[in-house]
Design a protein that fits this description.
Layout lengths: L6 E6 L5 H10 L4 E6 L9 H13 L3 E6 L3 H9 L3 E3 L7 H52 L39 H10 L4 H10 L4 H29 L2 E9 L1 E12 L11 E18 L2 E5 L2 E10 L12 E3 L4 E3 L4 E4 L3 E3 L3 E2 L3 E8 L10 E4 L7 E4 L10 E5 L2 H25 L4 E3 L5 E4 L5 E2 L9 E16 L3 H16 L10 E3 L4 E9 L4 E13 L3 H8 L4 H9 L9 E5 L17 E8 L4
Parallel strand pairs: 1-2, 2-3, 3-4, 5-27, 6-7
Antiparallel strand pairs: 5-26, 6-25, 7-22, 8-18, 9-14, 9-15, 9-17, 10-13, 11-12, 11-16, 12-15, 16-17, 19-22, 20-22, 21-22, 23-25, 24-25
Helix pairs in contact: 1-2, 2-4, 4-5
InterPro entries: Barrel_Baseplate_J-like
Protein name: Baseplate protein J-like barrel domain-containing protein
Keywords: Membrane, Transmembrane, Transmembrane helix
Amino acid sequence: MEEKINTSKIVIEDGHELTDVVRNIHKSKAERIILTFTDHTDLLISPINLRVLQETATREGKLLIAQIIQNPTGIRNSKLAGIKVIDSPSNPTEDDWRDAFEISESKRKEILEKKKEKVSTQTSTTKTKESFEERVNTAISKKQNGDYIDRRGVKSEPSFISIDQDLHQEEEVNPEIAGKDFSSLQNVAINNVTTPLPRKKVFELIKNIKLDKKKVLKLVLFVLLPLLLISGSAFAVYNQIGTVAKVKIFVESKPVEVEMIFTGKEGIEEIDFENLEIPIKKEEATKSLSDSITATGKAFRGTKAKGVVKITYYLGESCTTDTPKIVLGAGHIVSTTEYSYKLTTGVELTCNLISDDITVEAVEIGEQYNIPSGKSFSIQNQPKVTVYALNAAAFTGGTKEEYTVLSQQDVDNAVEQLSTTAIEEVKSELRESGKGWAIIEDTIISAVDKASIKTDKSVGAEASIVNLDLTIKGTATYYFTDNLNEGLTTILREEAEDKNLFESDKDVELVLGDEIDKSLTVEESDKDVVKIKLVAKSTIKPKIEKTVLENTLRGMAWDEGINYINNLKYAERKAVITFLPQKYPTFLKRFPDRKGGVMIEIQELEVQE
């Protein structure tokens, strides 16, 4: 059975350090590892960090693929470090893993070659050491025999041991070993090969070295100068691909408001912002409604009680032939303490006389007016002491019956209940019937047409159920809106520029918010003139094009770029500018000239009222 190959994914975020990733690779038991970079982490800035990750995976015997999305700098540095890179969010294919395997094998061979070279170097050093010891022994032997011959074949008296067989130089004999047996010189020379010289001896050797100017010049020209050029080139390359400038710019939206008085005119086709004229029209809507009314009014019917009274006009001795008579006409009121009646016929009264029978009738219907005999009555507008009436017999004929009628209150309640909903329906109909025109809310009038209220029974008539019909009428004024938003956008932007809301010494292009809050009210209205007050509110902010700003900063001197950004003044809060790597000499800082080297982040702040 084929062995299963495990795959592990390590997600690297902005706060992860190189040691964290190396530790995770080491701990992973999978044979295949995907490094997924989700943010613009600092690990992608330098290929050195990425090379460490690749070498770690190679030593662990694991395949490594870097998954880097929308980060050209990170992709380029990963390739320089020798890591297989994919820039899609999907998992690597088998072809990708084969490429990673080839890269890993190449790295493994490279490491093996380096190890072989190291072993070869150590072997060569050992042989050199042995050769040196043999030469020292030979030199000592020849010294003892007195027949030292140098490499030119000349027999001479040697006074030194030549390690690299260079030209002979005379040296003073150390007094400490003068006269001693040279057989011990072999041990001294060999010990000096492996034992470090004292510091004093080292300084004496350095002091006695005589430099050849030509050799020094050659050393400078052929060694030091190329090293300097290579170092300078490497620094220039790193300065181009290894540095990043991050700029976070804060943008503040500010409120802007204008107020204008327009003259509404019928017949014009568009809004005239120069002369402040706006097209208007009036629309009507009607709605007819019907309903039934349950009558609740109360009424009474019946007959009035009748009877006969005699009226006495008594003055006693004061009555003379010259005393004027009292004339009471029909309808004159006579009353007991509880009930009132009216005379059905007129009567003429003479003092100290009792009138004939006079018929009276109750002022209202009802049995309560059927009073018994012997009741005393007062006469309206006459003193009861001198003028009064009595009934010799009981009153009869009074009756009363209650029944239901349609009252005015019944009609009013039904009209109010029926029209409440209908009035709102008419208003909705008016709002929807603009057809390209916007309604002015405070001009909407909807009410019951009083003349349209009709019932099939009159008020006061006996009834139980009554049919009701009425009509709701509504009117509203509309204004034309076709070019209103465009004109208000221009006016609001000019208002913000006139007030210099962003206080910038540069020409700042302003962008209006997504919505304009409009409020229109009728200030004055008669048959000929309609004055409409328009209040428009919105928010406004500077327009920022990230690409243009990045291209402007690319290659700019560090201080110059900072001054440029601070002078933009898109908000009260200052921009945050970061250079990576952080511990970078200030005098060498510049805004990178490559694409992706300057990273702009725009953060919008809340609207300041």
